[in-house]
Amino acid sequence: MNASELREKTADQLNEELVALKKEAFNLRFQQATGQLENTARMRDVKRGAARVKTILNEKAQAAAGEAN
């Protein structure tokens, strides 16, 4: 999911997406530890996706704080 698609979502939807990505990252780390992980590139994509979601959430929070002042 790219940043433009994420910017269209609400903060609640972004939080749900972040929780899902964190769960997936946990599962991928668990698979790697047990030697079952086949696609190691997926770990990188999930971590970057979570960082992207956090960035968009921070941008939205900053914009909301700017409007309040």
User: Could you name the CATH class?
Assistant: Mainly Alpha
Distance between the termini: 32 Å
Largest sheet: none
What string, H for helix and E for strand, traces the elements in order?
A: HHH
From the alpha-carbon coordinates, what is the Rg to the nearest angstrom?
A: 15 Å
Low-pLDDT segments: none
Mean pLDDT across every amino acid position:
95
Number of domains: 1
- State the shape: elongated
Number of helices: 3
Please count the beta strands (DSSP E, at least 2 residues each). Answer: 0
Specify the CATH architecture.
Answer: Orthogonal Bundle
User: Which class do the helix and strand fractions yield?
Assistant: mainly alpha
Q: What is the CATH topology assignment?
A: Helix Hairpins
Helix content: over 70%
Summarize the structure.
83% of the residues lie in helices and 0% in strands. With 69 residues, it is an all-alpha fold.
Q: Could you please describe the fold and organization of this structure?
A:
It holds the Pfam family Ribosomal_L29. By secondary structure, the protein is mainly α. 83% of the residues lie in helices and 0% in strands. It has a single domain, classed as Helix Hairpins. It has three helices and no strands. The chain starts with a helix and ends with a helix. The mean pLDDT is 95.
